[in-house]
Specification:
The complex is a heterodimer of chains A (about 550) and B (about 350). By secondary structure, chain A is an all-alpha fold. Chain A is built from 24 helices and 4 strands. Chain A folds into 3 domains: about 140 residues, no CATH class; about 90 residues, no CATH class; about 210 residues, no CATH class. The two termini of chain A are about 40 Å apart. Chain B is mostly helical. Chain B has a domain of about 230 residues. In chain B, about 75% of the residues lie in helices and about 5% in strands. Chain B starts with a helix and ends with a helix. The chains are: A mainly alpha (about 550), B mainly alpha (about 350).
């Protein structure tokens, strides 16, 4: 690369960054986010979003430039920031001159006001300056040593995360009398107070710095423990985790428990697809079909509305799961020979066929047509009924534990290793004596069984099923969860579900833009970190063959926010 | 010959044949029963066919984008359905403005040309940016990665347009000149359906000629034949891939306006179903094969429009028209099972996919 081309990275990143920021503004995301303060009176979510965007792209620009040219790194990231600021300025000027609103519904005066820092046109040159500052920040932080950069990122993410999730944290704190005073100190009516933000920043920075200085020593200390001691530490950790999981709904309250149950359902679905896609590498986009089958079998068998069987939930559950497995194998047979994109499209077709059949008037007498099936009884154990979200939580938790157990055991079994071999290379796997037909069908069947299980739980959770809740979006959501979390990784599925399902449920402003964010997440993930947030060890090595000790993934941080 | 019979025919093959035979039986029984009942007169069948032809030629136009991109990149551009949607959705605002000012009715030809051009330009831009930003950095990545990116890009674009233009349905203005029907030898054809068929045929022919007769077309064909060899012959491969996206985008944009003329509304989600159908069409014809995509599109359109009445009505299925999408998807699955190379295709989907 010649020296003269060095400026290109800054301009390219700047153009991309301005495209994204202008889009975010015109889509109404910026305006929607302006309602929520992160640090009261200091920083609101809209500016945080725009700033993050610019800093990220500035960082990309810096990263593209060679580190041996520190001056160009700064120049490029600065250019990126300035171009973005300039474009946003241009947007305001255009908006003032022409009425964009006739076409672009979200190009409102409120948006221009936000972009002009609350003052409108006169103050808008500030945009240019702040864009440049963001770019400069990105460039300089890129040149800082990794430990400092990580500290900065972690602490900022902590503060922003606490501010964004205030609605979740505040009621939880306020519900306990002891903590009510503390809650008032931390949160103002909207956003963190300034002193708590500063305290949180320092605390997070301190912990991260400590970890980067002493982390190696702690890990070495753990490794130095005798085998028994290591085991004890590990089991204590697991016991604490179980305790937390058991009391969680009692602490969280109604709304948050509902969110957790939804996340749990997606974890169940994700773990099922993880076997098909993550372990065996079969790209199944019609995964919702088995979810629908599980839900509808449960509904048909239990609901008195149709009056065929009126079984209890527990009696219907095995039928639902077995039907799911059977359907998985059956739908697996025709697509055995397909790979990659073809498989994706064919399974997508299956998913749609199932939905269309369920929706049709033809099968209405049996499946309820567009109105769905209602009056599905709640599950109950010895007189205890799983009705409220807090109670359903335990049902889902049990399901998750069961499925995680199966996944873990399958992963290291002969079958699991056969799946991975098929994922890596079908022809070689077959040459090694793996029976492709049986292996693939078992993957489809197992995945479908898990999906049917979560469908059954879904049916009893809502006490009704509708064809409209069985659309292709569910398949896409689950695929996104697995990919973002890291294919084939069980903790990855949980992280992915929390990040992609939990966060949007908590951030109501998000809800409308959820799929936009999913799409963006998928693309960015594939471009930047194709192995996922919490990848399996094998895959992490695969993607970073040449560079073993790269910077420890910064994105695990953003996942935990 | 018969000696290796047991080794060659596996259980799954038999299962597939059984599935195929069952579906064939349903089709035959259904068709015979429908024809015997005489519920539809010849006039009805003709209407179905014209409708199917119109819809099929739109599918064919979209399918060309899929097939060309598959040819050069060996990937299914999932986001092509959004390229298709973006054109007519943007052009809607032009059409609506023309309608309001009366220009659309006073000068339908000119105004529709402008609408077409706007739609094609938008789709082209989106397709170009898509390739430039999302796909190009992944040129040498493992196969699954561009596919996932394409799915992500598809949702990104869908919801981007939802955010920009709003979530509602927009009714496309009706062109007065296209109302009414031609009567020809006692058969009637709706004017707009005739326009769709003719316009699509002209565009397809132009595209085909472009690919076959021009230097750029030749270069694109060379790239889809063998990228490395083309590079060695002095062809700028990246540029040709961009050009492919641009041409595919323009075709999709035009198809989008035709779709809007036919169904009279636009919506941010309108690309999804036609996109999958067009992909089906591309596979039907043999992916990577341009005449195949045209043929597949028209075939699929006809099946979809005639199928529900012909196959399902006779079986006594209530409201068979609701199942027309199911027929299309069943076709897709059947083709992928029994002839993954498609009608005209030679590339082995099984081996290369």
């Amino acid at each position: 690369m010649s020296r003269f081309k060095l400026w290109e990275h800054g301009v390219k990143a700047g153009l991309l960054s301005s495209l994204m920021t202008v889009l975010l503004s015109l889509m109404g995301i910026v305006e929607a986010f302006s309602q929520r303060q992160i640090v009261s009176g200091l920083l609101s979510m809209d500016y945080a979003l725009l700033g993050t965007m610019v800093v990220f792209m500035g960082y990309v620009a810096a990263k593209r430039t060679s580190r041996t040219e520190p001056m160009w790194v700064v120049i490029n990231s600065l250019t990126c920031g300035m171009i973005t600021g300039g474009m946003l300025l241009l947007l305001i000027l255009t908006g003032e001159a022409v009425n964009l609103r006739a076409v672009l519904v979200n190009a409102s005066p409120a948006l221009y006001k936000i972009l002009g820092f609350g003052h409108g046109l006169e103050a808008s040159p500030l945009l240019f300056v702040s864009g440049a500052l963001c770019g400069l920040f990105a460039g300089i932080s890129y040149l800082l040593p990794w430990a400092i950069r990580r500290t900065l990122i972690v602490s900022l993410v902590c503060v922003v995360g606490a501010g964004v999730l205030q609605d979740m944290i505040r009621p939880t704190l306020a519900a306990r009398e002891v903590l009510a005073g503390f809650s008032e100190w931390v949160f103002s009516s909207n956003g963190l107070t300034e002193q708590s933000a500063a305290a949180l920043f320092l605390l997070a920075a301190g912990i991260t710095l400590f970890w980067s200085l002493k982390g190696k020593a702690v890990q070495a200390g753990f490794k130095a423990l005798p085998g028994k001691g290591q085991k004890a530490v590990r089991w204590t950790g697991i016991a604490v985790l179980i305790m937390i999981l058991l009391v969680l709904p009692q602490v969280l309250g109604l709304f948050l428990s509902e969110v957790v149950t939804i996340v749990g359902l997606y974890v169940l679905l994700g773990l099922g697809l993880n076997i098909v896609l993550g372990y065996a590498g079969l790209f199944d986009l019609g995964y919702v079909a088995f979810f629908a089958i599980g839900a509808y079998v449960t509904a048909v068998l239990t609901s008195p509305e149709l009056g065929f069987f009126s079984l209890s939930f527990w009696a219907a559950l095995p039928f639902a799961v077995v039907t799911g497995i059977f359907a998985g194998v059956l739908l697996g047979i025709p697509v055995l020979k397909m790979r990659g994109d073809y498989l994706a499209i064919a399974t997508l077709g299956f998913g749609e066929i199932i939905r269309i059949l369920v929706l049709s008037d033809w099968l209405r007498p049996w499946l309820g047509g567009a109105q769905g099936i209602g009056k599905i009884p709640k599950a109950s154990v010895a007189g205890f009924e799983f009705g409220m979200p807090q109670e359903i939580y335990y049902l889902i938790l049990a399901g998750c534990v069961l499925v995680i157990f199966f996944s873990l055991r399958l992963r290291d079994s002969r079958l699991g290793r056969a799946w991975k071999a098929v994922r890596e290379d079908e022809d070689v796997a077959q040459a090694m004596g793996i029976n492709l037909v049986a292996t693939k069908l078992l993957a489809f069947g197992t995945g479908a069984g898990f999906s049917a299980l979560s469908g059954a739980i879904f049916a009893t959770k809502l006490t009704s099923v509708y064809p409209h809740s069985m659309n292709v979006m569910i398949s896409i959501n689950v695929v996104c969860i697995i990919i973002v979390g890291g294919m084939g990784s069980i903790p990855g599925v949980i992280v992915g579900a929390i990040a992609l399902v939990g966060l949007p449920e908590l951030l109501r402003e998000f809800a409308e833009y959820r799929l936009f964010v999913y799409g963006l997440a998928l693309v960015v993930m594939m471009l930047v970190k194709p192995e996922g947030l919490w990848p399996e060890a094998v895959r992490r090595r695969e993607f970073h063959e040449e560079i073993e000790e790269v910077e420890p993934a910064a994105s695990t941080v953003s996942a935990s926010s | 010959m018969l000696k290796g019979w047991k080794e060659r025919v596996t259980g799954t093959d038999i299962a597939m044949w059984v599935i195929g035979a069952l579906i064939l039986a349903v089709v035959i029984v259904g068709s015979v029963a429908t024809l015997a009942s005489g519920r539809y007169a010849g006039r009805h069948w003709f209407d179905f066919m014209v409708f199917g032809l119109a819809q099929g030629s739109i599918y064919a136009l979209i399918a060309m984008g899929y097939t060309m991109v598959y040819g050069v990149l060996r990937m299914i551009n999932f986001a092509h359905s959004e390229v298709f949607m973006s054109g007519p959705y943007t052009a809607y605002y032009v059409a609506a403005a023309f309608y309001k000012s009366g220009f659309l009715d006073s000068n339908p030809f000119l105004s529709m040309t402008v609408v077409f051009l706007v739609a094609m330009a938008t789709s082209t831009l989106i397709a170009y940016l898509l390739e430039r930003i999302a796909y190009r950095p992944l040129r040498n990545a493992p196969r699954l990665i561009p596919l996932i990116t394409a799915i992500g890009a598809s949702f990104f674009l869908q919801y981007m347009f939802r955010g920009l233009y709003g979530p509602g349905f927009q009714a496309y203005p009706v062109v007065k000149a296209l109302e009414g029907q031609f009567v020809f030898l006692g058969l009637r054809i709706l004017k707009f359906q005739a326009l769709v068929i003719v316009a699509a045929a002209v565009l397809m022919f132009a595209l085909y000629a472009f690919l076959q007769r021009t230097r750029v077309g030749k270069a694109i064909r060379a790239v889809s034949e063998d990228k490395d060899a083309a590079y060695l012959m002095g062809i700028d491969v990246d540029k040709m891939i961009s050009t492919t996206f641009i041409i595919g985008g323009a075709a999709a944009g035009a198809a989008g306006v035709l779709y809007a003329i036919m169904f009279k509304q636009v919506h941010f989600f309108m690309g999804f179903i036609p996109g999958i159908k067009a992909f089906t069409a591309a596979v039907l014809g043999g992916i990577g094969n341009i005449p195949g995509a045209m043929l597949g599109g028209i075939f699929l359109g006809l099946i979809e429009s005639i199928g529900p009445s012909l196959f399902l009505d006779g079986l006594g299925i209530v409201a068979p028209y609701q199942l027309k999408d199911a027929i299309a998807f069943t076709m897709l699955v059947l083709v992928l099972i029994f002839r993954p190379t498609g009608i005209l295709g030679e590339r082995l989907a099984v081996k290369k996919a």
